[in-house]
């Protein structure tokens, strides 16, 4: 595997610095995956923009972490699984629900299960979901329009999941307890 540069706030291309600064403010550091993504200022800037849109939407942070963790597991991307396991627990997801998603099972909570199921189905079916998939989501109490917000989160996750799979960033010590193998 190629050795991708891990940029810092100081060493990053000028066009990547605003996005890296934004991430550093959110996380209190520049995580290893976006540090490698900074080699493509357009990708990093697009990621931050899409994530700002997704996080400003109708899902709360627990629901967002269910989506992001489900997407990482479904895409088989180890760094994001560890990262979103950590963040999910930090946002109050139960250890049992985080573990279930990591094992490709559904969370216990019916609404979180519907959210996870839809995200996984969107990825597995490459967006070609059917009325049954949408009905299972809306019957759990979600508005049909939120299906499109799930598409937005899947799009954002795809950027991080693929980048992490390509660049193979090491896990930060903070995320090592949540290491995950494909």
UniProtKB/TrEMBL annotation:
It comes from the Bacteria. Signal peptide: none annotated. One of its GO terms (molecular function) is peroxidase activity. Keywords: Oxidoreductase, Peroxidase. This is Alkylhydroperoxidase family enzyme. It comes from Paraburkholderia rhizosphaerae.
């Amino acid at each position: 595997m190629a050795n991708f540069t891990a940029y810092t706030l100081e060493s990053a291309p000028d066009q990547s610095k605003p996005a890296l600064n934004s991430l550093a403010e959110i996380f209190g550091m520049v995580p290893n995956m976006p540090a490698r993504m900074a080699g493509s200022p357009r990708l990093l800037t697009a990621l931050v923009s899409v994530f700002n849109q997704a996080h400003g939407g109708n899902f709360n942070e627990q629901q967002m972490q269910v989506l992001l963790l489900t997407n990482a597991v479904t895409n088989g991307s180890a760094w994001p699984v560890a990262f979103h396991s950590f963040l999910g627990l930090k946002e109050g997801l139960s250890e049992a629900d985080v573990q279930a998603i990591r094992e490709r099972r559904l969370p216990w909570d019916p609404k979180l299960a519907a959210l996870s199921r839809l995200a996984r189905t969107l990825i597995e079916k490459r967006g070609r979901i059917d009325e049954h998939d949408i009905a299972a989501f809306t019957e759990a109490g979600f508005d049909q329009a939120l299906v499109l917000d799930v598409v937005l989160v899947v799009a954002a996750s795809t950027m991080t999941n693929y980048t992490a799979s390509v660049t193979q960033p090491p896990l930060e010590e903070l995320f090592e307890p949540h290491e995950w193998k494909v």
